[in-house]
Amino acid sequence: MKKFLAVCLLCVVPAIAGGQTPQAAERIPKPIDRTTFAVLTTFYQYDHDIPLDVRIIRREETPFYVREKIVFRSIRDGMVTGYIALPKNGAGPFPVVLLLHGLTGSKEDWWDERTAQSGGNLSKALLTAGYAVAMLDVQYHGERVVYNNYEDFGPMVMQRDDSNRYREMIVQTVIDYRCLLDYLATRKDIDSNRVGVFGFSLGGLMTFVLTGVDARVKVAVAASSPPFQRNPIRAAVAPQNFAHAVAGRPFLMMAGSKDGDNMVEEATALHQMINSETKQLRFFDSEHHLPAEYIQVGVEWLKKYLKAAH
User: Which end of the chain is more exposed for a tag (fewer CB within 10 A), N or C?
Assistant: First the structure.
């Protein structure tokens, strides 16, 4: 079976986004075919009957929101740590936005206004707009660094290019978010029929994957996402292999036009692969970290489409 999966994940179809020069087309990875995609999605399946043993271990209340720290059992390795915050304005059940942080970050980024991605401002903007927010530590990040022997995962990817652990980290984290959605569906203060995802950088990449494998996601925003994964080992987490599975849901991409070589070309190509009539690609005159206005752009996208979702 493993050999079959490996062979399938190397299969491609000759689909190239239109309007490119032959030289540009050669640089754009081709997505896998639909049959192979069906095999790929088996990586993200899990046993829904395994108890999550969710615990709320701390509850903090401010004049504007209530924040709960949660832990639950991962189906693969150890415990998952996260936050759920609910606005005090308005009455629930509240639509919820899942926030996915970047490489070397943590769930705390979404509360720290000093971080480059201004995550704290995003959380507050969403809570003020009447959304609940929920976020987890990516595997090997934040409080889950214990499962990486307390080693910063960034150098493992950027310096040693440990593609196997990178792939497994993303697969596990996406499953963790799917388990989080299972838990949120049990809460009366959350409207689990109105789920959005907002990911930054690595979180943007995972936004493609999570949206592609879980139909409960109704609206998505991917900011500064790496457009493509070219290493065959990473085929199971490559955004180009999940773009077609967006399947009509509103999807916003945002990127810095100076974020690496060929960013505009590659982000444009990936955007063209997204299977939705309701999609948008917004470039900023920036590098990887986007100007503060990207937060409002993303929030307005969610406000426009999430509350209308059924």
Answer: C
Q: For residues 200 and 99, what is the distance between their CA atoms, to the nearest angstrom?
A: 8
**258-288 exposure pattern, b = at least 16 Cβ within 10 A, e = fewer:** ebeeebbbbbbbbbbbbebeebebbbbebeb
3-class secondary structure, 233: helix
In single-letter form, the type of residue at position 101 comes to H
Tokens coding 60 = 């903090």
Task: Take residue 221 and report the two structure tokens written for it.
Answer: 């925003």
Q: Where does the chain have alpha helices with state H?
A: 2-8, 22-27, 34-40, 119-128, 153-158, 163-184, 202-213, 263-273, 293-305
| Cα 176 → chain centroid | 12
- Eight-class DSSP state of 294: H
Confidence of residue 26 (pLDDT cuts 50, 70, 90): low
pLDDT of residue 147: 82
Q: Which two tokens stand for residue 164?
A: 């196997």
